[in-house]
Fold:
Amino acid sequence: MTSEKIEHIFDQFQHKGKFSSFKELASGHINDTYLVITKKKPFYVLQRINHSVFKDVPGLIENKVAVSHHIQEKLKDRSKKKQKRSVLTFVKTKEGTSFYQDQAQNYWNLMVFIDKSVTHELVKSKKIAYEGGKLLGEFLTLTNDFEPSKLIEVIPKFHDMSFRYMQFKDALKIASEERLANAKMYIDTVAQLKEEMHILQNLKESGEIKIRVTHNDTKISNALFNKKYKGLCLIDTDTVMPGIVHYDFGDAIRTICNTAAEDEINLNLVTFSVKYYKAYRKGFLKKMKKSLTPLEKQYLPLSAKTMIFIMALRFLTDYLNNDMYYKTKYPEHNLDRSKNQFKLIECFSNKIKNL
Structure:
């Protein structure tokens, strides 16, 4: 992407800056994100949404803009400086819309960059885990009165366990004998866990656990901190849509509490960090006291196991499908990823009594 192209797109928005330069922010895996550096602060974040992955990009952008506006309204008693550091601020185009579409039909949106902020790819202290939990709890609390039906479902059936099982069953029918044999132990484990892994979905469908606004991508790198490790806000809200609190809490725990990389093949290195779990849960509950029901709280531990399982199942399904979805570096890569997550489930199950 050339400087001239970025400047042209940037100038389609109602910003207050003069373009100086830009640099690519390479932390995301789906969208293209650029830091636009202006002559005077604030700087801006310009993002191209991948419309080959997300089928309704205008709806996606309207989702996150509406949720940000809602949070801004809830935080109006804070100073403007604190408010701007506590929630993403989106900039409208000169036409008054939330996104700009270029000649190549790419969709772009613009946000104000939160200065003197940092992200963490990994949790390396209980403080980061605790502050991350507080950020998620605050996000869910501030959006607790936002009507989730006003949001589009950005990725349909994203955490739907029945849908993931159906995909798995279909993969079993077409998998090669070699791959079925290699994965037999884990195929058997899936069958053993089926009933337990549907508990949260059944509670959701029965209405016993309410539908909320959920973030749906709660890895720690999507939490913004200041340089003293104090949490500021959640970012990367492309997947904001209706869900249940357990999706967000469970997926955060899955990514935060694995002591090894997601594709680590030495399973002896894969354990579940109880200290990070407890720190994250403490911060989360500090902010969720008033908006979390007793039933929701009761099933928080199961949400961690469920979200770990759903990733194990997706990796296993893709392995049986000859690696159609996830990028792989070698033939057994998806199977190794699945083994990693199943080992994490085993570790979690052994330690759950202490949680």
Summary: The chain has a mean pLDDT of 95. DSSP finds 13 helices and ten strands in the chain. The first helix runs from residue 3 to 10. Residues 318 and 324 are 6 Å apart (CA to CA).
